[in-house]
Amino acid sequence: MKPLEDLLVLEFSQYMSGPLAGLKLADLGARIIKVEPPVTGEGGRNIDIKGMYVDDNSLLFHTINRNKESYVANLKVEEDFQKVENLIARADVMTHNFRPGVMESLGLDYKRVNKINPQIVYAEISGYGTDGPWSGKPGQDLLIQAMSGLTYLSGDRGDLPTPFGLSVIDILCGNYLVQGILASLVQRGKTNEGAHVEISLLETALDLQFEVITTFLNDGGKLPNRAKQGNAHAYLGAPYGIYKTVNGYLALAMTGLDKLGKIVGLESLGDYSDKDYFDRRDEIMDKLRAVFKTKSTDEWLAQLEPADIWCADVKGYKEFLNHKAYQILDMDQTLELTNGKELTTTRCPIRIDEKRFFSSIAAPQLGEHTKGIDKEFALDMTYEENIHEVKEN
Amino acid sequence: MQKPLEDILVVDFSQFLSGPSASLKLADFGAKVIKIERPKTGDICRELYISNVKMNGDSSVFHAINRNKESFTANLKNEKEKQEVWALIKKADIVIHNFRPGVMQRLGFDYPSVQKVNPDIIYGEISGYGNEGPWKDKPGQDLLVQALSGMTGLSGNAGDGPVPMGLSIVDILTGVHLAQGLLACLVRRGINQEQKGGLVRVSMLESAVDFQFETITTFYEDGGEKISRSQKNNAHAYLGAPYGIYQTEDGYLALAMASIPELGDLLGCEELLAFTNPRKWYEQRDEIKRILADRLRDRTTEEWLRILEPADIWCADVLSWDELIESEGFKALDMIQKVQMGDGFTSQTTRSPLRINGEPLLSSVGAPKLGEHTKSIRKELISRN
């Protein structure tokens, strides 16, 4: 049994951040019903990467929305709205990530929902908070990276601002929303009361940078200074970084320069003081760069690893995903699509009680479960009848 | 405000960032977190200085990660002190560690041993690469896991070589996943009276894979094509034009997904009007980005924003922290909190990004000095046993 079995989550969310929270809850056993508008469904069905589509929906949508159901409702039509209200009365959690004001205009803001179901945990994501001058701006991953200072941390000193090449803010934000939801469910176990959980992408981006922003706030406001070449962390001293070898690259983490110098034949590295690791980082990295390019990655690893120097080869997907160290994790799983094809994706990274969590259920077609859910929850009843039935049970 | 985990006790053996970032989140939710530290040196993170910044004797990183926690020192090889830790574990709801595989067995605090003493324990452990396989004894360090998992091929431009993400992103995500598993077990404890405890295991490598779930799934579907970053202005190796950051006359502009012909219209750039098929904006991205980059250099960021924002084009200025902190949008978030240590030392840091029932999860308690709470914890939780 998965830990969140029996929990019912209604997902009004779209694109990445909110649906990712739904995916995480689904992997831990919750039942997720996406509530989607007719005809188009949620916007994420049409956001693709590399232009790839699986059916009417993008591969990206399939990746984020596996293991969920789809219920179609036009919230502007009275009859549909009532059905959704009835569904809300049965749910434990609902999520949305509309811009501030949208759920209010639909009549499904927290105040209203709390009246329908006082035990519900209502969780919402905004881009920049629900008030303030930026609240109407589009909450999109790259834009938040740009606004939050994050793009000055990666890449080398002379580079343009360099974003993290994944939807890092969306992903982290969805995960934090899950934390807020789960903590509120723990609280509900004690008080029998629901909760309103809020987070924004911008606050997530600031939290992601909490170590370096704390340093900035207590160091007279010095801005990040990326290494000249091979930068891996603007705030960490040499040798932390990436170095070219004869046939590839080598990643080197924190290491005593004295010990490193002896192994690679650069005795002069022992002369640097602790303070120099950061203050004279470029000079030290230049010296190391000149040495590392003289041998192959494997030759360096053979010298460095036995001395417990923290280093690693730099791998691409092909090499990594075919490596025994990856395959032993049993991280892949296969989804069965409605059109008979199969799709390989990765599983939940958490193991509980020595169990890995798998699910072969693919993302739902738009409205695939509408009829079944209508029937199962008797949503055609009036709201009053339904509430009565909930109370009886 | 009543915080959701106020009655939860966490005994935290973990060091550096991954484990301690998980317990920081639990502390923000109201849990009492006791760090078990080695006498004299403590958590190695205390010495992990970044840009040589030291605050009241410890690194700034240590302060950021360990605020709102207590420190209990114990030599785990000394029988008497070990018994004190056992007394704490008896009362704990959660135990966390991130030692390399085998270390907790040697110390005697592995899951089966802890479960014997406290059957309801929720036990969380982080490894670098899992407890099995050829990499299990490798050092579980953020940059190394980024390098091994393919992640360094995603950021930067095509000619750049590997570009790591410039923060301890894998540590942070692993901590996030651990906290998620621990919280799920706490929820289960409330639902299922039969199953109060549990073992939660995550590894940095699995968390790094999960982080790349979109791009790895795409790799499996596209026949295993090598990751291909755009020549210039890359912001996501799998997204088409215009997605990227561009230089303007006086700064930079970030552009997310947008229609190329519409951009052509708005920017007064006729060359872009020919790119009418959205499904080709990936394969044509280098050409489109080159045209865009040329045009965007002609005017200031402010001028471009004035044209693009009213048309609801997803775009933004690129800010550094000093610019961000001065902005009204940042001030409205009230994201910075002041924390105070036991000896009166105060500093500023960020708060939890979450709000519950309209209230941010704040705490003014700073990071502990090594062993600061050993005596008070003995008195409060051990001697009354």
Structure explained in plain terms:
- The complex is a heterodimer of chains A (393) and B (385).
- Chain A has 393 residues and is an alpha/beta fold.
- Chain A folds into two domains: 8-208 and 334-392, Rossmann fold (3-Layer(aba) Sandwich); 241-314, formyl-coa transferase, domain 3, CATH 3.30.1540.10.
- In chain A, 38% of the residues lie in helices and 14% in strands.
- Chain A contains 17 helices and 13 strands.
- Chain A has helices spanning 17-27, 59-65, 78-90, 102-106, 110-116, 141-147, 168-191, 201-208, 210-217, 257-264, 276-279, 281-292, 297-304, 317-321, 324-327, 370-376, 383-392, and strands spanning 8-11, 31-36, 69-72, 93-96, 121-126, 195-200, 241-244, 249-252, 311-313, 332-336, 342-346, 351-352, 355-356.
- In chain A, the strands form four sheets. A six-stranded parallel sheet of chain A has the order 3-2-1-4-5-6, with helices on both faces. A three-stranded antiparallel sheet of chain A has the order 7-8-9, covered by helices on one side. A two-stranded antiparallel sheet of chain A has the order 10-11.
- In chain A, a hairpin with a 2-residue loop joins strand 12 and strand 13.
- In chain A, helix 3 (78-90) packs parallel to helix 17.
- Chain B is an alpha/beta fold.
- Chain B folds into two domains: 9-211 and 335-382, Crotonobetainyl-coa:carnitine coa-transferase, domain 1 (Rossmann fold, 3-Layer(aba) Sandwich); 244-326, formyl-coa transferase, domain 3, CATH 3.30.1540.
- Chain B is 36% helix and 15% strand.
- Chain B contains 15 helices and 15 strands.
- Chain B has helices spanning 18-28, 60-66, 79-91, 103-107, 111-117, 142-148, 169-191, 204-211, 213-221, 260-267, 285-296, 301-308, 321-326, 328-331, 374-382, and strands spanning 9-12, 32-37, 54-55, 58-59, 70-73, 94-97, 122-127, 198-203, 244-247, 252-255, 315-317, 336-340, 346-350, 355-356, 359-360.
- In chain B, the strands form five sheets. Chain B has a six-stranded parallel sheet, with helices on both faces. Chain B has a three-stranded antiparallel sheet with strand order 9-10-11, covered by helices on one side. In chain B, strands 3-4 form a two-stranded antiparallel sheet.
- In chain B, a hairpin with a 2-residue loop joins strand 14 (355-356) and strand 15 (359-360).
- The chains are: A alpha/beta (393), B alpha/beta (385).
- Chains A and B meet through helix 2, helix 6, helix 7, strand 6 and helix 8 of A and helix 2, helix 6, helix 7, strand 8 and helix 8 of B.
